Amino acid sequence: MTNTRPNFVRNCWYVAGWDYEFTAGKPHPRTFLAEPVVFYRKGDGTLVAMADRCVHRLAPLSLGRLEGDDIRCMYHGMRFTADGKCVEIPGQDMIPSSACIQTYPVVEKGSWAWIWMGDPHLADAALLPDARGLDDPVWVLKSGQLDYAAPHELINDNLLDLSHLAYVHVASFGATPGWITQQPRTTQIERGVRVERWVESAPPLPPLPSLAAYESVDMWASYEFLIPGVFLMYTSLHPPGTAKGSNHAAPAGDVLFSNFTCQAVTPLTAGSSRYFFSWGPGSQFGGEEIAQQMIDVAMAAFLEDKLIIEAQARIIAMSPGEKIMPNAADRTVTIFQRMMERMKHPASTSS
């Protein structure tokens, strides 16, 4: 039996799920990078991740039973420790040294569980993106997720180029042409890109008393997009004229409203992905009610993205040999795509 694996970036941290998804007392099956993975919590709460297949007949361990900190395959009863070592084979005393399950490094940070699918010796917690957790006191964040019938690269491209807001999100976000008429400032950073832009004459949303006096506002949006597909964006609203008064650099002066969003894209298979997101206001600008309004609007907007991206994926699948024609808005996309390609083939590129 052979298994040909799709070509993913593996030596990086992927979001496996929200920490609250992985409840104690039972196994949780997932698929990442076309690999079956099972999660469970040990008695002390530590999260374990290992390949979701018994070494005997490749039956899923996620249909097994937790016994203390071990997991037992419920097909023929083999029992494995949290580090993947087989310690019991019913009906025989000799346990082959090769009877081990692959395990994966896992870290919980920022309300996400992160998994490293590559070389475990390279797994470095210092490389984890600085995502804000749902308990961060500076922000009031709500969470959600969507599954896509589309490759993760297409969702990354969508987040790297926010010019699509001017067309895809007119109904949900009330986006204006300012998202496409002025190109952002893009800076390559370690393991990603930083993108900054002003959108002048933006609608004063959400409808708050602090914004009621303005027919329009200047919006500052600054985000980092990090390998393999983590989007962290700060947005602030300012009185009209702030963009010009700041020479279109980072804002100085009054902030009428601010919000933060953390988003992540994880490939499930070559043609399917899971999209995680949180969003909400600065705690000084709103509480649970405003945060819920914002995440409801975000869900509507992300469903708009899902519609166009899944349709795009279907057309691409039916168009072998057709090439994508880049335009000026694709500069950030191109920089990030090249970074990802270098990580897929590190031995073939010079540092």
UniProtKB/TrEMBL annotation:
EC number: 1.14.13.82
InterPro entries named among the record's database cross-references: Cholesterol_7-desaturase, Rieske_2Fe-2S, Rieske_2Fe-2S_sf, VanA_C_cat
Species the sequence originates in: Novosphingobium aromaticivorans (strain ATCC 700278 / DSM 12444 / CCUG 56034 / CIP 105152 / NBRC 16084 / F199)
Superkingdom: Bacteria
UniProt keywords, alphabetically: 2Fe-2S, Iron, Iron-sulfur, Metal-binding, Oxidoreductase
One of the Pfam families matching this protein, by short name: Rieske
Membrane-spanning segments: none
GO-annotated molecular function: 2 iron, 2 sulfur cluster binding; metal ion binding; vanillate monooxygenase activity
Ranges of residues in domain Rieske: 13-115
Keyword Iron-sulfur: yes
Name of the protein described by the UniProt record: Rieske (2Fe-2S) protein
